Amino acid sequence: MNEKTTDSLAQLNARLLDFARKRDWEQFHSPKNLAMALIAECAELVEHFQWLSEEQSHQLSPEKREQVALEMADILIYLIRTAERLDIDLIAAAQRKIAINESRYPADKVYGDARRADEYDDE
After folding, report:
1. Claim to verify: residue 82 and residue 102 sit in the same structural domain
2. Are residues 16 and 57 in the same domain?
3. Fewer CB within 10 Å, N side or C side of the chain?
């Protein structure tokens, strides 16, 4: 993250809501449509990494890095719009999810091991 970034999710949400309203696009921004657009943008992000090695994925050219940044921005935009339409506080939801993950994946049990939570039940 960049320390120069001062926009909050609330500020981004307000700007995106204004953008949509000025274009009369809220009529198209149902949770279903936004979720579909979100997954399409996720697929576009994945395309940038599809045939790269692990090492190559860490060493993107400046041009590729900018393309990836813009795909990530699209994902964030659709996620914020979906949350707005469903009246979901993304920060609060993320905090709840982190707490759940901390419980499901205790550091002393899963350190250095990337299995799914249900795969640890056998131990």
Report:
1. no
2. yes
3. N
How many Å apart are CA 62 and CA 74, to the nearest integer?
19
Nearest alpha-carbon partner for 81 in 8, 7, 30, 6: 30
Q: Report the first-to-last Cα separation within the chain, whole angstroms.
A: 37
Examine the domain organization and report whether 82 and 101 are in the same domain: no
The reported pLDDT for the residue numbered 2 is 54
Spatial contact of 82 and 33, defined as CB atoms under 8 Å apart: no
> How far, in Å, CA of 1 to CA of 15, rounded?
20
* 107 in the same domain as 57: no
Domain containing residue 83 = 9-88
Q: In this predicted model, what pLDDT tens digit does every residue of 55-68 receive, in sequence order?
A: 999 999 999 999 99
Token couple for 119: 């795969």
Instruction: Give the total number of structural domains in the chain.
Output: 2
